[in-house]
Each structure stands twice: as C-alpha cells, then as structure tokens.
Amino acid sequence: MPRSNRKSSEGNNWQAGNMKIAIGSDHRGFEAKQQIKAIITQLGHECIDFGTNNNDPVDYPDQAYLASMAVSNKQADRAILACGTGIGMSITANKIKRIRAALCHDELSAQISRHHNDANVLCISGDLTGEVLLRKIVEVWLSTEFSGGRHKRRVRKIMAIENGKDPAEVTNDKQ
C-alpha cells in the first residue's frame, strides 16, 4: 500500500521516515525488541526505547504502560510492544485512553490493523515470530496508512466506548 501524508483518525500526520516509534518488551520479548529497534532505525524512523534492557524477568505491564502512554500523550506517533505471546502487552496497552493496540501474527493482520482500525500500537509475540516474519510485520504496519471512509466512523465508535458512551450514537463522520 502506498504511503501518503493522510491523517490518522486523531489528526497526526504520518510522513515517510519521520515517525517517532516507542518500543517496549518484557524479558521474553527482549530479543524481538532488539530486532524491531534495528528495523525502525533502518527505515529512517526515530526509536524511543522503554525497556527492558536485558533478559532478566520483568512485568510486561510496566513497559506496555510507558510506551503506550508516550503514544497517548503524543510524545510518540506509534508504539511496538513484544512479550512472549503479545497477549499481555495487548491487554495492557488497550487499557490506556486513545490506544488501539493490535496483536498481529502476520502481514495481513498488520495491514488491516492500520488500514481499517487505525491501530497505533502493534503487539508481537517474541516466542512465536521468527526474524523474517517479524521484519515483514513491522514494515507493513509502519508503512500502512489508515484508510478513513467508513472505517473512520468505526474507530470513532471505539473511541465513544472508551469514553463511556453508546457507540450506536455515533452515526456519521461529522459527529
């Protein structure tokens, strides 16, 4: 999918080679995080590393919180998180306001998470994702833009739920 200067549902401009990407992992996602860090840098993006910095056991919610808050507070454009399965990071990140975290296991789920859901946090399994697939997932996710259109309304419904509102009240893109 071609990259453009389209805006996300929250109004941020995504420009090629110009994003700040927060990253974080627990001990089981550490090796994957190191690979992700290299990929981000090779693609010309800035990387903000929220740890962990080795294989010593840590609690994944700590890193998920820090990296996701950087996105929520607009200190980073997006975040990528890795733990053993990606599930814990995904659950934790989705507790934070303005975060739409997606656990992706392949290129298609990475693409759809951005194109349809405007996911701003990618969660990856450090135990189940090999180097080649990891690179493909990260590259696709970072290069795919949000399509807007009917999907914009759906993302706005997710945001309504986050704010304690009935999503059925969001009926068009003008609200």
Written description of the protein model:
The protein is of the alpha/beta class. Helix 1 (30-42) crosses helix 5, helix 2 crosses helix 3 (87-93) and helix 4 (107-115) packs parallel to helix 5. The chain has helices at residues 30-42, 60-72, 87-93, 107-115, 131-143, 150-162, and strands spanning 20-25, 46-49, 78-83, 101-103, 121-125. A 5-stranded parallel sheet has the order 2-1-3-5-4, sandwiched between helices. Strand 4 (101-103), helix 4 and strand 5 form a beta-alpha-beta unit. The protein has 2 domains: 20-144, Sugar-phosphate isomerase, RpiB/LacA/LacB (Ribose 5-phosphate Isomerase B, Chain: A); 146-175, no CATH class.
Structural domain count: 2
- Look at the structure and give the CATH class of the largest domain: Alpha Beta
Strand arrangement within the widest β-sheet reads 2-1-3-5-4
Helix-strand topology string:
EHEHEHEHEHH
Beta strand count = 5
Distance between the termini: 29 Å
Backbone CA Rg: 15 Å
Helix content: 25-40%
Anisotropy-based shape = globular
Helical/strand content category: alpha/beta
Q: Tell me the β content.
A: 5-15%
Biggest β-sheet, characterized?
5 strands, parallel
CATH architecture tag of the largest domain: 3-Layer(aba) Sandwich
| CATH topology label of the largest domain | Ribose 5-phosphate Isomerase B, Chain: A
Q: Which consecutive residue ranges, at least 5 long each, have pLDDT under 50?
A: 1-15
Number of helices: 6
* Average pLDDT: 91
